[in-house]
Amino acid sequence: MKYTRIFTAVLSMAVMTAALAGCAGKNSSNDKKGESGKKTFTVGFDAEFPPYGYKDDNGEYVGFDLSLAEEVCKRNDWELVKQPIDWDSKDMELSSGSIDCIWNGFTINGREDAYTWTTPYVDNSQVVVVKADSGIEKLADLSGKVVIVQADSSALHALTGDDASDDNKALAASFADLQQVGDYNSAFMNLDSGAAEAVCLDYGVAVYEVANRGSEFKILDEKVSTEQYGVGFLKGNTELRDTVQETLAKMSEDGTLDKIADEWADKGIDKQSLCFDPNAKAE
Q: In the chain, what percentage of residues exceed pLDDT 90?
């Protein structure tokens, strides 16, 4: 009996140690190996969020953010894993270790304490897209209209979140309906069919969608809100965040960030919106 108890205690300690080691590995750095034998860096992204992350005509996952991630992996000798996710499930994907970060036009504002962040790299705005012949010229014209946002998006939070401005809350209250959809393709299908009169979304995505859908849509001049994008990691995962932060700093200093932005200029990325400060320290 005595030896059985000792064995049981030792076994329990071994299991606990292994479990803790597994948690530490998941939360501190990327220690999984890919087919190449290199460490993997798994980026979670919305595959219908152009130009930051989406599937192109060849069936490949591409985007401005994925291009940045590719360069980060190249410089760290990592293997990039592009993992499309359901945006509503991003926190579960991150906490389970299925992905190492969320890198997909991910807004810092309002989420500062929910993740471990890099410093911002893009200044962005929430804007409204309507049909060009709709007669809607300003935000006030949306009163009594059906407006669409993506579920759990920055646009939704800008209009109805705890940190939403009083003006935006009043604007949202004036809508006939504020509908949520899973992706922007569905949003624009509803807008095109007349089921809705407006879509509120990120500026870069709006530029891409309008450019690729013809002259029947337009972006209103008034902005709903402004925000900044960062790369989000599991809370407390400073080790992996710091490596990505330092790599982005080098990419900013040697001009690579600007170069990649130029490569995506025809898809809606404005180099002037880049705001990464190589001298800033991520908290």
A: 80
CA distance 49 to 184: 7
State how far the Cα of 257 lies from the Cα of 75, in Å rounded to an integer.
13
The 3-state DSSP class for residue 274 equals strand
DSSP string, 87-142: GGGHHHHHHHTS-SEE-SS-B-TT-TTTSEEPPP-EEEEEEEEEETTS---SGGGG
148 in the same domain as 130? yes
Which residues on neighbouring strands pair with residue 225, listed in sequence order? 126
At 33 the pLDDT is: 76
Range of the domain at 136: 125-226
Domains in the chain, number: 2
pLDDT confidence of residue 19: 40
- Give the pLDDT confidence of 76-114 residue by residue, as tens digits: 999 999 999 999 999 999 999 999 999 999 999 989 999
- Enter the pTM of the model: 0.77
CB-side exposure of 248: number of CA atoms within 13 Å? 28
- Residue 2, domain member (yes or no): no
pLDDT digits (tens, 9 = 90+) for 111-127: 999 999 999 999 999 99
Same domain for 132 and 112, yes or no, is no
- List alpha helices for the chain, DSSP H: 2-28, 64-76, 90-96, 154-160, 166-174, 184-193, 203-213, 238-253, 256-263
**What tokens were used for 71?**
């360069």
